[in-house]
Amino acid sequence: MSGDETIHASAVAIDGRGILIRGRSGSGKSALVVGLIDRDPATTRLVADDRVVLTLADGHLVATAPASLAGKLEVRGIGIVEIPALSSCSIALVVDIAPPRECPRMPAAEALTVMVHGVAVPRLILPSGAHDGPARVRFALVHLAGGKVS
After folding, report:
1. Does the annotation mark 105 as catalytic?
2. Cα separation of 144 and 113, whole Å?
3. Is 148 one of the catalytic residues?
4. Which residue is catalytic, options 17, 45, 49, 50?
5. What is the pLDDT of residues 74-96, one digit of tens each?
6. Residue 145: pLDDT band by 50, 70, 90 thresholds?
7. Which of 32, 82, 105, 121 is deepest in the core (most CB within 10 A)?
8. Other Cβ atoms closer than 10 A to 72
9. Between 3.40.50.720, 3.40.50.2020, 2.60.120.40, 3.40.50.300, what CATH number should domain 5-143 receive?
10. Catalytic residue among 58, 101, 105, 131
11. Residue 117 bears catalytic tag
């Protein structure tokens, strides 16, 4: 990656550890962000919703929001709301939201990591509409990306 790249995704940070959420339009990226923030608003912060600017810094993948979207989150049925947000975070986990039929129940070891701009990042493939999505993401942050989550 030779410079900044903006992608269609969302990002949050839990205890400062970034989660990049990717998926097709309408797959539930923003809904997952809402669920993660609602589950623990003291430790979970929005970084970017709808579009994420990715950069490399010291070998780490860093996410920020485009200036026009900073602190804004789409909540279906409510609209665009402004909430406190972090200006950036280092990505510790990638969550790919996919149709349930494309989500392996027992993923192969190589599916648990994804290369994003030359950086290997732990990965969770999450079925769209999963009622336990926020819990699975928090679990993956500990068990795939290592470390502790409040």
Report:
1. yes
2. 9
3. no
4. 50
5. 999 999 999 999 999 999 999 99
6. confident
7. 32
8. 17
9. 3.40.50.300
10. 105
11. no
The catalytic position among 17, 29, 45, 138 is 29
Res 148: pLDDT: 66
Q: What is the 3-state secondary structure (H, E, C) of the chain?
A: CCCCEEEECEEEEECCEEEEEEECCCCCHHHHHHHHHHHCCCCEEEEECCEEEEEEECCEEEEECCHHHCCEEEECCCEEEECCECCEEEEEEEEEEECHHHCCCCCCHHHHEEEECCEEEEEEEEECCCCCHHHHHHHHHHHCCCCCCC
Q: What is the pLDDT of residues 36-84, one digit of tens each?
A: 999 999 999 999 999 999 999 999 999 999 999 999 999 999 999 999 9
Query: Among this protein's residues, is 40 annotated catalytic?
Result: no
Measure CA of the first residue to CA of the last residue in the chain; give whole Å: 33
pTM tops 0.85: yes
